[in-house]
User: Fold this.
Amino acid sequence: MYILAIESSCDDTSAAVLKDGILLSNVTASQAVHEEYGGVVPELASRAHQQNIVPVVDAAIKRAGVTKADLNAVAFTRGPGLLGSLLVGVSFAKGFARSLGIPMIDVNHLQGHVLAHFIRESEDDHDQPTFPYLCLLVSGGNSQIVKVNSYKDMEIIGQTIDDAAGEAIDKCSKVMGLGYPGGPIIDKLARQGNPDAFQFAKPNIAGYDYSFSGLKTSFLYNLRDWIKDDPDFIEHHKEDLAASLEKTIVDILMKKLRQAVKDTGIKQVAVAGGVSANNGLRNAYRDHAKRYGWKIFIPKFSFTTDNAAMIGITGYFKYLDNDFASIDLPAYARVTQ
Assistant:
C-alpha cells in the first residue's frame, strides 16, 4: 500500500512516498527568498509553493521507484499554517487524488510533528515510543507538552501563553543582527560560548504552560544597556550571548517537562518540531535520560523541520482506520477547537 504525502504549511514544499508505513522517499524544497526580509512573507511563500510542488512531487515518486498508478492514497497537510501556502498543497492533493480516483487523507500539521517518531526507513527500524508518551513540541510557532495516548488521541497539557520558543530565538537573533532563521545561527554560536556568561529573566507561570515574552524583553533591555557602554558589545560577546540565551530557553522548557513527567509518571519522553534540532536541547534530553531514567526519543535532523514524511506516517495510520477526507474539506490556518 503506497501513500503520497504532501506538506506545504509554511515555506517548505515537501513530498514523500511510503510503502506500508516504510519511507521510500522524502523530498523538500526550501525557500531562501525570505532571508532578506527577516521572516516568512506569506505571499512569496505561496508563489514559491506553486513553482515547487510539481517538481517536488515528481522527484518523490521517481526516487521511490513507483509510478502514479501504484499510489493508493494522497495524504496532505490541511492545517494549521499559512493559508496561502496550505491552499497550494491542498488544491494539488485534491486534483491529484481526483485524477487517479484514489482517496485523500487530511493531516493536522502539529500531529504530524508528534508522530514523526514513527517514521520508519527500513523493516528493521523498531525504535518508536509506546503509548502513552509525552512529547515536547517546540517550533517557531508552537511550544507545547502533549500527552500522546494513541495515534489519534493527543492531549495538550501545557502550551505557550504568548510567544513560542522558536519565535523567541528568531527575534533575539534579529535584535543581534545575526539574520534569519535565527535557530541554526544561535545553535552554532552557542557551541562556542559560555552558557553562564549572562542571566536573563525566566517566567513564573503556573502549571505546565510556557511564556517567552518576558525573556525577549529581558534580552532586549540588557542588550540595550550593554551596548551603551560598548557599541561593539554584540560582536565581542555574540558566542556567549547565544549560549546564555539557549541555556535560558532550554532551562525553561525542561523545568516544565520535568514536572509533567513527575506528575504523570510517564517516562517515555519525545521531542519534536524545528527547535528539536537544537544541540543544547538535545543534550538536555540526554542528560535527563541519565539523571531521571527517561526513555527519550529524538528525531533525525531531517524530520525536525517541516517534512512530508511525518504527514505520510500520520496519513498511514489514518488510512488503516479508513479515516478519509471529502473533496470539499477546506484548508485552515488555525485550530479553532
User: Anything to note?
Assistant: Residues 233-264 form the longest helix (32 residues). The longest strand covers residues 71-79. The beta strands are 2-7, 13-19, 22-29, 71-79, 104-108, 133-138, 143-150, 153-159, 268-272, 295-297.
